[in-house]
Amino acid sequence: MSNARSPQAPYEVIRWSEEGLSLLDQTRLPWSVEHIAVRDLASACEAITTMRVRGAPAIGITAAYALAQEARRLSSQSVDDARQGLAQAAERLAATRPTAVNLRWAVARVLAATEHASDSAVLAHLATEAAQEMHAEQIEADRRMAALGAPLLEDGAQTVITHCNTGPLATGGLGTALGVIIEGHRQGRVRDVLVDETRPRWQGARLTSWELQQHGVPHDVIADGAAAGLITPRGVRAAFVGADRIAANGDTANKVGTFGLALACRYHGVPFYVVAPRSTVDLATPSGRAIVIEERDEDEVLSAGGTRLAAPGAHAVNPAFDVTPAELITAIVTEAGVLRPPYAPALREAITGRSG
Asked: Which pairing describes strands 245-247 and 252-255: parallel, antiparallel, or unpaired?
């Protein structure tokens, strides 16, 4: 099977071939478009940790391909040794980013697919097959979410707002929330987009703006703190954001600043939509209080582009995510459908097929 690729994305984010795995280095955007070779497990972990690849679905797919590559490396060993080595690699990968559930889901799926391999060569084949299946499924899930989410904008071309980056860069397909926006623009439902800059790593200013340019969608980048005050003057009709983990009750962890945008939307009476694949739903996490929030290096807040912003000796708190309570979310769009409150039974049915 060759590279899985969304025909609607004019750039490849994750490449897989006989030579191995390569990634579009998102730390280089928007200044240059460069693919980096991921040659071994250490470079895969580094790429995830340093956010060369980011976005919960893309992280999961990358980890799956990294395991497939590791399984190839182990193919000369006995099947028991290869299986043990793959499990150790999975734990290393799973530890790189603690908040996004897709990462652990993906490595667990690869391990499950290889559980009954008869020899190490078969194990490598099964690991590769599982990773490619996940990538192809994500592309189809993105297409389905875009088709389901765009009709939520019913009354002609509208202004929408988004936070962080949720396009092809975040999934390896069409994207989640940004996929809905791109499809909405194609259908004439989206006129323009307000893009939160998304401090401290500027995913909105660097990545979302770049992606919207690639797809020809008009937009303006705004400071995160300007969002609440611009919703009414700019006539924002809806907010679309992604998710890194959705708890069983609908509480949603996403890039820090999402909670504040949800509060602003509630005040202004603007629908607030979360768009995420079912792999982001974690029924084992009862509520947002149980979600581990990743704390990143304080220098991301204290500096920008290598230039110190804060006073000498100042310190910072740098949570990578926050949790938006379910009661602030108008609907959750997954490939299984548009889910409405109460979310606990809706999410359970979307994941298990059972409402009880």
From this structure: antiparallel
Query: What b/e string do you get for 80-118 counting C-beta neighbours within 10 Å, with b at 16 or more?
Result: eebbebbeebbebbbebbbbbbbbbbbbebbbebbeebe
The topology under which CATH files domain 148-352 is: Rossmann fold (3.40.50)
* CA–CA separation, 55 and 36 (whole Å): 17
Residue 80 is a catalytic residue = no
| Domain 14-143 homologous superfamily, CATH | translation initiation factor eif-2b, domain 1 (1.20.120.420)
pTM over 0.70: yes
pLDDT digits (tens, 9 = 90+) for 209-227: 999 999 999 999 999 999 9
User: Could you say which of 192, 244, 282, 322 is catalytic?
Assistant: 244
Inter-CA distances, 139 with 36, 54, 61, Å:
22, 16, 11
Residue 328: CB atoms within 10 Å:
18
- Cβ atoms < 10 Å from Cβ of 333: 26
pLDDT in tens, 167-176: 999 999 999 9
